[in-house]
Automatic annotation (TrEMBL), chain A:
Pfam families the record matches: Fer2_4, GCV_T, GCV_T_C, Pyr_redox_2, SO_alpha_A3
Keyword Oxidoreductase: yes
Domain named FAD/NAD(P)-binding: residues: 176-452
Domain called GCVT N-terminal: residue spans: 627-901
Protein name: Sarcosine oxidase subunit alpha
Family, similarity comment: Belongs to the GcvT family.
TrEMBL record, chain B:
Pfam families registered for this protein in UniProt: SoxD (PF04267)
Protein name: Sarcosine oxidase subunit delta
Species of origin: Billgrantia antri
InterPro entries, per the entry: SoxD (IPR006279), SoxD_sf (IPR038561)
Amino acid sequence: MSKSLKQPNRLKEGGRIDRSRKLSFTFNGQRYQGHAGDTLASALLANGVDIVNRSFKYSRPRGIVAAGAEEPNALIQLGSTEAAQVPNVRATQQALFDGLVARSTNGWPNVQHDLMGWVGKVGGRFMPPGFYYKTFMAPASMWMTYEKYIRKSAGLGRSPMERDPDSYDHLNQHCDLLVIGAGPAGLAAALTAARSGARVILADEQEEMGGSLLDSRELVDNQPAAQWAERVLKELAGLDNVTLLARTTANGYHDHHFVTLHERRTEHLGETAPLVNGHRPSRSRMHRVRAGQVLLATGAHERPLVYGNNDLPGNLLAGAVSTYIRRYGVVPGHKLVLSTSNDYAYRAALDWLDAGREVVAIVDARPAPNGEWVEQARARGIRIIEGAAVLEAKGASRVNGARVATIDAGAFKVTGQAETLDCDTIASSGGYSPVIHLASHTGARPTWNEEILGFVPSLVKGVHAAGSARGIHDLAAGMADGVAMAAQALEALNRPVQAIELPQVEARREGAACALYQIPHEKPTLRAPKQFVDLQNDVTAAGIELATREGFESIEHVKRYTAMGFGTDQGKLGNINGMAIAARCLNRSIPEVGTTVFRPNYTPVTFGAIVGRHCRELFDPERYTALHQWHVENGAEFEDVGQWKRPWYFPQTVNGKKESMHEAVARECLAVREKVGILDASTLGKIDIQGPDAREFLNRVYTNKWLKLEVGRVRYGLMCKDDGMLMDDGTTSCLGENHFLMTTTTGGAAGVLEWLELWHQTEWPELDVTFTSVTDHWATMTVTGPEARKLLAEITDIDLDRSAFKFMDWREGNVAGVPARVFRISFTGELAYEINVQANYAMHVWKTLFEHGDKYGLTPYGTETMHVLRAEKGFIIAGQDSDGSVTPEDLGMQWAVGYDKPYSWIGKRALSRSDTRRTDRKQLVGLKPKDPTVVLEEGAQIVFDPDHAIPMPMVGHVTSSYYSPTLGSGFALAVVKGGHQRMGETVYLPMADGKTHAAEIVGTIFYDPKGERQNV
Amino acid sequence: MFHIYCPYCEELREEEEFHPKGEAHIVRPKDPEACTDEEWGDYLFFRDNPRGIHHELWVHAVGCRKFFNVTRNTVTYEILETYKIGERPTVTAEHLAGGDKQGNVQVASGGQQTVGASGAAVASVKGERA
């Protein structure tokens, strides 16, 4: 075994790792070895790796601080291949697997020798909060240049550039009680609810359930606490009404007890899910849980103390030291100094001593600590320095000393002469902050509890908290609280409670903790060595002091100014210390400065886990018409219209060369104008309307008149909202006295149906009428062009004579031997028949048309040609030529407005408001570019005077613009202020490239203004 | 994500099945032509934005397609009742103000329990049309 594979900090025995299974892994290109049961963090510490990252802003060397989700520094980039890259994984939460490859997230060009290190050394005074904004913003044009380097030097990981080989699932779950956290309180609660017969889900984010029981010094039933956890978990696993979800983080509490749980199923096995019987299981599951009641047993995070250079590798949380020793058999150093405000942290020193290493001193801020563990430490010969704290850590890339002095915390003063202790590790503890993130997601603001020196959650109805999550840190009391809170939840569910017998936990005498956040230094905060509050975002005590001096008094403002609690960290370690510092500077109490709120997600979630299967072709449903296969086989290019795939144009191969869109559209347009074309119009929305009051209903929702429409006739209608603005348009046919078929725009179909239902259900329930969507039931084929009649006549028994079947008539009969409704309506301006058949007959009819159509030059055309043809005729597209601020009058369609209808139809009253009566409203006109080769850009802004100083008054914009092969020029539709009164005037369109186009305002109809061609 | 009791389906369903349609009980003036521009503007554009009890119109868009009303606390997001079109709310801001001050809602004191209109509540207002 080579030297690099030794684990110098690994204890000979102890911990919950499997020493028989050795795993090798690579960190920053170096190979190391760990054991099954390790996290990446414990394995790195076992191998004596001090520096795991560079800090975000100052690029200072950083080591591992914590052992769980609250770790701020050890953010790593995971993955040996491009496709497997995962950014910002906390090494403390990543189980070790054989072959794991990880890099530091930050540290350009590398973590050991850092180019940006000078910033951290000299940058104290030079990089205050807001530094980037203040320094790099001017000149604005240079920001893009700065930003590239700032990102590179301060970045937080990168996304993979290749397709993810893994799949991800979403699961909908229901339960009576969701218990989050499987520590002492959570286990006691889950067992109570499970034995009472409730359906229980117990979720825990760690590799192994048990929480603090897994590394506790305390005995439960006179055995190591972990054994009780194992017993309870075994019982729960055997119960049908219990679902245990390990490696599952409750990341967000959403409304009404909807909680998203993110279960990592294979991330402990490999960087991609390993094959099982040739099949790759999903990498993770997002459980969408709708719970009857929710119990938060999320525990507490230890607060570090804020002292000089507290970010040097070798500074750890006291609890993390115990976790690494007891759970992983790893001592992260040789000589320990513990700085504490409370008794519980003493276990770190006792565990350190048990591991056979030296405890240099315990520095306790309290004047006369006297709890049970304090006495134990004293009895074992540990030096306890009372009324004192670590002022600053010494060292360059790892702690090599601790300056210690007596302090007066209340007066924020160093009172004694500082002494430097020789050590390589400083553990600190400033108390425990309940993990209130999920409670905070509910919108309930936490409240400060002076007794436990922390925020405790406020709880909405149906949410309960137990144990450390609400400040009950004592083991026995926390378990009892779990039982009590489970009982409370069960009562809310009206379920009987089966109380459980709690195990024996030895009582431990504990002295009171003192309030301690930032440690005073001999120098004022601004001149003292950096005292970090938020390690991930490089926020210092000096930064917060500066923020308060610059007038940021609310903690929410301080946070935004300094970036405290931002990003993936969400203030887990730093927020309360930061608030305490702001409170000190402002001479207020912590609750007066504000409270702390957290947002989902609790820890970062990969996009894969969020989207589940809803990606790629399953991202959004795709809708196909009954004729789709024919379009595919005939080389159609497709366009997305809503969820529909519509043929855009049908390029043909001419002389071995595929047509461009321009060429294909020109050919298709001329075919329709000169011979006959065919369009698949099946996507148009179709609503079947029936009932004795159907006609009256139409009269109220359309702007025009419907009372006299005869059976067999069709009418075009405009639909407005009650503000008078056009909402949708289409034709409606009278199928029977009480029976109509309405068509809508393709994209508007669902909205129009909901609109009709809204008015019927809420405003006019007395009208007897029903609405049914029949869009998918009928296929629609538009046969249009001068030869359309001749072609259709070959395959239908309907009398197509122009006197028997007029423009705007519809007839029922057989087409190609199947029942059909044929509508003589035209969206091209040519003779046109819209053939509607049952969708499953469509392909037969379509193919029959082509069998007979060859001799007439039958040409399939797509939506682009449809647009050119309709625009040449001035036919609008609702939503393209109108935008929710356009009335029928603005469109010049007064002919479709029934001003004298007796009922005040939807939109009528609004047309006489002062604003809709303005003469300078934007009105729809045609535009003829002065240069016929120019095709104006859709959306281009229109001005009257191109020589006006910038900003020019903009008077409208182009809504539709195409090249017309029939006219041999470009043409456009546009809205222009007062346009109807400006016929013949010239307007200008200044473009981004500096050119200005000129165009003449003309009428909207460019082709066959009298409409003779459609009426033959 | 809300859990909404559809008073027609008589089931609690996920919010994804519903569309919100704004404030409930907005009555279209019987004679729009008799309205001043200001009155018509009020009807069209002006809506209450209360902190606390709010009556809303929702539609069970991918369910039964029925419109119905929801009484919701805009602070806690608690849905206090749902009721059919034509029925009146049993929970109102005035009603609560007379009781235990819940009209002046405190952020943390509310709940998020979704409560469908109880059978009794529905029965008591059944037949009453707005």
